[in-house]
What we know:
The chain has one domain: Farnesyl Diphosphate Synthase, CATH 1.10.600. It is built from 15 helices and 2 strands. It has helices at about 5-10, 10-25, 30-40, 50-60, 65-90, 100-125, 130-155, 160-185, 190-215, 230, 240-245, 250-260, 265-280, 280-300, 305-320; strands at about 95, 95-100.
Amino acid sequence: MSISKEIKSLLKDDFAAFEKVFKSAMNTDVALLDIILKYLYKQKGKQMRPMFVMLSAHIFGEINPATYRAASLIELLHTATLIHDDVVDDSNERRGFLSLNALWKNKISVLSGDFLLAKGLLLSMDNHDYQLLQIVSKATQEMSEGELLQIEKARRLDIDDAVYFEIIRKKTASLIASCCAVGAASVQASDEDVEKMRSFGEKVGLAFQIKDDIFDFKKAGAIGKPRGIDIKEQKMTLPLIYMLNQMSISEKKRVIRTIKKDHDKPEKVQEIIDQVNISGGIEYAEKKMNALVEEALAMLQGQKASPYLNAMTKLVIYSIQRKK
C-alpha cells in the first residue's frame, strides 16, 4: 500500500467529512461553472495538502468541523492557483487532463479561479473562521510574491542560494506551511504551537521543492517528470545554482547565455544537465533537502505518540523519497 493510501485509510472518516464540506463549498447555480467544477473535481491528486491539515489537527487536539473547513479552504485556494498558473504558463495539461484554458480558454479559466478564491473566503467568513482565513490569506500573498520575484530574477539568471530559498519559501513552501498551521489552529492549539507547525510545514515545503528541482536533472526514465523543463523555462534551481557558483566568471556567463538563448535546443539543454550532474549539484541539493527534513522532524519531538504522529512522519519522508 502506498503512503498516501495508507494515510487516507487512517483518515477515512475525516476525508469523508472533508469531501462533503468541499463539494458543498463548490456549489453553483451557473450551469457552465458547474460543468467546469465537476471536471476539476475529477482531477484531484494525492490530496497531500488536506492530509497535512488533518494530521496537524489530530496531533494537537480533537478534529472538528473547523478542520474540514480549513482543509477545504486550502484546496479551494490551491485549485484556484493551479488554474491561474496554467493560464500564466500557457499550459495545456494538468495531472494527465486537459487544462481549463485548453478547453475553455483563458477568460473562463481566470473567472473560474476567481470563483474558487471567493468561495474560500465566504466559507471562512460565514463560519467566523477568521484565524484560518488570516493564515491562508498570508500564504496567498506570499505565493503571488514568490511568482513575481522569480519572474523578476529570471531576467538576469544570476541568483544565489539566499534569493533562491526566498523564492521557493514564498512560492511553494508557504502553502504547505499554511496547511500545518491551519490544522493546528482549527483545534485551538496555542499560538506557539500554530507557529511551530507553520515553521514545520515551511521546512517540509522547501524540501519538497528541492526534490522537484532534482527531478529535472535525473536520468531519463528514472522519474515521471520530463527532463530539463526548468532549464527550458529559464528557472534557476538549486543544482544549477551550485554548478554556476563553482565556475569561473567566463564559464558562468557562457552557461547563462546558453539558458537565455538556446533553452529551446534539446542538445544544449542536455549539455547543461550533464554538467550539473558532473558538478556535484545534485548531491549538494540532496544534502540541503535532507537537512531541512531532519529539522522539520525534530520539531515533532515531544508530541504525544499516536498513529497520526507516525503518519505525519511518513508523509514528510515520502515527500523527499517520491519518484515523481
